[in-house]
Amino acid sequence: MPVCWILNESGSFVVALSWLAVNAYLFIDTFFWYTEEEAFFYTRVILGSALAWARASAVCLNFNCMLILLPVSRNFISLVRGTSVCCRGPWRRQLDKNLNFHKLVAYGIAVNSVIHIVAHLFNLERYHLGQAKDAEGLLAALSKLGDAPNESYLNPVRTFYMGTTTELLMTVSGITGLGISLALVFIMTSSTEFIRRSSYELFWYTHHIFVFFFISLAIHGGGRIIRGQTPESLRLHNVTYCRDHYAEWQAAALCPVPQFSGKEPSAWKWALGPVVLYACERIIRFWRSHQEVVITKVVSHPSAVLELHMRKRDFKMAPGQYIFIQCPSVSPLEWHPFTLTSAPQEDFFSVHIRASGDWTEALLKAFRVEGQAPSELCSMPRLAVDGPFGGSLADVFHYPVSVCIATGIGVTPFASLLKSVWYKCCESQSLPELSKVYFYWICRDAGAFEWFADLLLSLETRMSEQGKAHLLSYHIYLTGWDENQAIHIALHWDESLDVITGLKQKTFYGRPNWNDEFKQIAYNHPSSSIGVFFCGSKAMSKTLQKMCRLYSSVDPRGVHFYYNKENF
């Protein structure tokens, strides 16, 4: 594997490995502490090794619950991303994978939750068996503690005749534990790709059960079911000697009755900082949602695509960034991400929205009357905008050569980038690092080309006039067509302009051969660092990652491809 690719991918690997290492350390350290700690010797007599399993997984749960909100704190991520001193190169690209880390931490929560629940089910059963009539020896003596005055109990189950489920639902820890488990099940199941694609609204709403999850988590330890010997009792009660003389605890001065107390709740300490940070995040979003957004233009495109031009006070953006949009008349709570298709040099910001779900379909209906844009802008629904937020495309200008690849509506982030290049050419601005842009767009529907073709035509014309036609090389691929379209294409094939787009560059039919494309780019730029930027399907993303690995040189002085994927 090329050294450069290892460096490029090492960021993700190091982050995941560091996270795993910290989890492993916390689990092992806590497990052995509860296995050997003298204060919990009598607790282990009743519970056995399940005590250590429950406590070790609880610490890992606290750690992961501390992390889970950080990757979705968008303003915090933007702040860190803007700190170039602390966040450069491969490490900066890790911020674009914040949702991947969020999912990784969520899996950690799920795994540790299962361990914690199973261990506590064993604990509850062992507590219950400690009160059985046939219980004897030290186990019976410990379970009976708390029945007499001036004794503190160790076994929270006080009678054998009460069912385990009833006992569970009579404690703070049991009730909150059940609530946390149900919340986690709802959140995890609704986060599957199938649910997100078929019903994003269900995913969005169930994710907000996290508020109940964290409240329950904060008070979960208040039940103090797991109890250990108090420090004062340890000084007076020698466990090593007294464990064999439990029958003499009441009478012997050397073995006073041991005293127990519950462990102080600690989950809230782990989660407090991130929860406060995320609360500030939501306050900022709430403040932004009440800033006025003026809609200046609405355009309805073929293939159910809506173009919105907007203005907002003090709005500043960079190419490739995205915003979150809320439409109160469609849903007063839902926010959805859309990449900006305007350039920083324009006096407005724009998005292109395709109908691909309940919310987007309702939005298109709200802004159109029988397929036409409303004639009066003042009659349009109100929009709230949060952002912009940085994406991987903001790094396009940091490479001498950039390869931009999009599928379908995934082309929208590159509209902003190409417009910015166009404006820089118009203003005769130099692009200090960027010397070449390769642009690939793979699309199924010929009608989807319409709105983007005008931009490419302007780029083609202006760059030729400025003598910079070499800067941009674009390739458009049509993957779907019918028989009539094929006949029409064949009849006009010899014309100077493409029959589909009206551009000088002819449209290709089918899919690109990525081996040939990457081989040619590597040949054209033998000693360059090449940024590959993609927005589209997961399957193609894997293919492009493979190409970047395959065609990056082993020699540090050779060509190196750096893969970047747009994430929301």
Would you kindly provide a written description of the structure presented here, covering whatever features stand out?
The chain is of the alpha/beta class and 568 residues long. Helices cover 48% and strands 14% of the residues. The protein has 21 helices and 14 strands. The protein has helices at residues 3-36, 41-47, 50-67, 74-82, 89-94, 98-130, 137-144, 164-168, 172-189, 193-198, 200-207, 210-220, 231-236, 239-242, 267-289, 358-367, 412-426, 450-465, 483-491, 514-524, 538-551; strands at 227-229, 260-262, 293-301, 305-312, 322-326, 336-339, 349-354, 384-389, 401-407, 436-443, 472-478, 508-509, 529-535, 560-565. The strands form four sheets. It has a six-stranded parallel sheet, sandwiched between helices. Helix 1 (3-36) crosses helix 3 and helix 17 packs parallel to helix 18. The radius of gyration is 31 Å and the shape is elongated. The two termini are 29 Å apart. The model is unreliable at 1-8 and 369-374 (pLDDT under 50).
Give the number of DSSP strands: 14
What's the N-to-C terminus distance?
29 Å
Helix content: 40-55%
- Report the principal-axis shape: elongated
Radius of gyration: 31 Å
Round the mean pLDDT to the nearest integer and report it: 82
Biggest beta sheet attributes: 6 strands, parallel
Q: Report low-confidence residues grouped into runs of 5 or more.
A: 1-8, 369-374
Quaternary class: single chain
SS element count, helices? 21
